[in-house]
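Hi V.,

You were right to ask for the full record rather than a summary. Here it is.
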Amino acid sequence: MAFTGTQQKCKACDKTVYFVDQLSADGVSYHKACFRCHHCKGTLKTRSPSKVSMMFSGTQDKCATCGKTAYPLEKVTVENVSYHKSCFRCSHGGCSISPSNYAALEGILYCKHHFSQLFKEKGSYNHLIKTASMKRAAAVPEVASAVPEI
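Predicted structure:
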């Protein structure tokens, strides 16, 4: 059984790259020996992170409530928005909520109990929308002050 080449050519030497010697960076194929630093010509090594290290590695996900990094082990994601488990709380009563028992209006989280209770008080959600916009306006200065100036 012979090793067959890929259709990929090495970006450095323009020769066929075999699977056993293939290294890919940013979608570009190289031979492992051809993957070198342009400055010092030293061979660059790559390593694949383990699944466990991926769980603790940095992430771009920020908690919608506090704005801090939400790591995979401590986050809840609903409707493509991430929260810390501790931040995923009802804004009215502060009670803990889960993806199966929450309601959101204008980005403000409620447990289903308080959401229906607040509707029954006024017969509509208009007062909640007004409260949500006031909370959002109050949160803007806090987030802006947390971001360091460059």
